[in-house]
Amino acid sequence: MLIVDDDAVMRLLMRTILEADGFAVVEAANGREALQQVGVRRPGAILLDLLMPEMDGFEFISVLRAMPEERDIPVIVVTAKELTPRDHEQLNGSMVRILEKGGAGRDTLLEDLRSWLHASVHSREKVAP
């Protein structure tokens, strides 16, 4: 699992939940670092913030989807940004789910993340030969 977020506290919270559930976690503070991490070891999924310095989430997704070997990595957008119709259009087909950082609070965000990941893992197990 690759966590891409410039907020170190949010990365720590997500890492704590994921590792407690048995996931191996790698972190990146921006899109450039994330692309380097993807080059080192292909993650099973990416948790991506959209608003970051150097390379934001939109640019990261664009570059990732242009990489033939990596274009099918599931991307879960985790953002505090209120998405516009243009944002949704830009993200269309590029991610699996959007989880909001604000609103319901971090506990709810992390519980949503945990539920999605477990459902995703179990659905892959059913499909696997």
Please write the CATH class name: Alpha Beta
- Strand fraction band? 5-15%
What is the overall silhouette?
A: globular
Helix share bin: 40-55%
Task: Tell me the total number of β-strands.
Answer: 5
Structural class: alpha/beta
According to CATH, the fold-level topology is Rossmann fold
For CATH, the homologous superfamily is named as Response regulator
Instruction: Provide a count of the helices.
Output: 5
Which runs of at least 5 residues are low in confidence (pLDDT < 50)?
A: 124-129
Average of pLDDT: 81
What is the terminal-to-terminal distance?
23 Å
How are the strands ordered across the major sheet?
Answer: 2-1-3-4-5
Order of helices and strands: EHEHEHEHEH
Describe the model.
With 129 residues, the chain is of the alpha/beta class. It has a single domain (2-123), classed as Response regulator (Rossmann fold), CATH 3.40.50.2300. It has helices at residues 8-20, 31-40, 57-65, 85-91, 106-127; strands at 2-4, 26-28, 46-48, 75-79, 97-100. The chain has a five-stranded parallel β-sheet, sandwiched between helices. Strand 3, helix 3 and strand 4 form a beta-alpha-beta unit. Helix 2 packs parallel to helix 3 (57-65). It is globular, with a radius of gyration of 14 Å. The model is unreliable at 124-129 (pLDDT under 50).
Describe the secondary structure blueprint for this structure:
Blueprint: E1 2-4, H1 8-20, E2 26-28, H2 31-40, E3 46-48, H3 57-65, E4 75-79, H4 85-91, E5 97-100, H5 106-127
Parallel strand pairs: 1-2, 1-3, 3-4, 4-5
Q: What tags apply to this protein structure?
A:
129 residues, alpha/beta, Rossmann fold, five-stranded parallel sheet, 14% strand
